[in-house]
Structures are given as C-alpha cells and as structure tokens.
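User: I'll paste a sequence; please echo it back and then give the predicted structure.

Assistant: Echoing your sequence first, then the prediction.
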Amino acid sequence: MVSWMEEDSLSSYLMIRTVKTDGSNQLGNPILITEMNGGRSSGFPKMVKKDNQLVITWTNVDEEKSISTVIVNLSEVEL
C-alpha cells in the first residue's frame, strides 16, 4: 500500500492504492481518503498495517492544528 497527496486548483487530496510486490508492477485503483487543507504544510501522512486494517493519520492545518485518523478495512480494498 502506498499513499500520496494530489493537488488541484481547489484543494489537496490524500490518496492510497495497492502496489503488487511480485514484480508485475500491477497497481490497484486509487482510493480517495480525504480532502486536505494546507498542501505540504500538513506534513507526511503516516500508515500502519494492523491485522486486516490500515490505520492512516495526518495533520490538519486549519485555524488550529489537529491530528485526524482513518481506519481502512483491507478486505474492502482491491489488492
């Protein structure tokens, strides 16, 4: 699983997708996790796999900084 941030003229977006590690270079479909404010000032999202879940955290840089977390059930993601 990899994550990245995309930007357009309106906002920034935290995305994830699966990447096969068997040398086939197959990529899963991109999955939008959240819309973010602040672009790169929000730092780098962190991911941890626990059992069949992926825990993703990131910094919100609105008026007051805060940490957000989402849990992705990997059985619901195209691998």
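The first strand starts at residue 2 and ends at 7. The radius of gyration is 13 Å.
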